[in-house]
Amino acid sequence: MMSFTGNIDQIKQYLWKFDKQTIYDIEIKKHRNKRSLNANSYCWEIISKIANVLRLSKEEVYVQMLKDYGQSMKIPTKVNEELNGYFKYYEYLGKGKLNNSIVDWYIVYKGSSEYDTKEMSILIDGIVQEAKALEIETLTPNELRMLKEEWR
């Protein structure tokens, strides 16, 4: 499998190199910068401090931060459909109607390892806000800004 990153003009030039008789499957998606490992490390460092103050596990705090500041969507499923194996973080909302059928509604949360830089920035800002409310020392606003600039 080959991978190429470029603007539309660069992609057109790249495609001219291929054999015109061969059939190809091509996937094009908008480029997103990956966040730095420093951002992820800092996220878990603050979550650990919050967990220690609240006497909870890191996982419990992480899931709560995903619920409060993370990315999610509401989905319908067949009644009594089991979501284990499909989603790691989800919450049952209740039964409801969809197109004249009774369904179970869930809210599913995207794990932070799947976040782009903007989504991770929102999550970290929320975690920092929670830490400050608990009087946990965090990076200064300037240090946070510099950490976020590393992602770009």
Characterise the protein shown here.
The chain has 152 residues and is of the alpha+beta class. The protein has a single domain (35-149), classed as NinB fold. The protein has helices at 8-15, 37-54, 58-69, 117-133, 141-149; strands spanning 72-77, 89-98, 101-109. The chain has a three-stranded antiparallel beta sheet with strand order 1-3-2. A hairpin with a 2-residue loop joins strand 2 and strand 3. Helix 2 (37-54) packs across helix 3, helix 2 packs parallel to helix 4 and helix 3 (58-69) packs across helix 4. The two termini are 26 Å apart. The model has no long low-confidence stretch (mean pLDDT 88).
Q: Which terms summarize this structure?
A:
3 strands; 3-stranded antiparallel beta sheet; alpha+beta; 152 residues; NinB fold
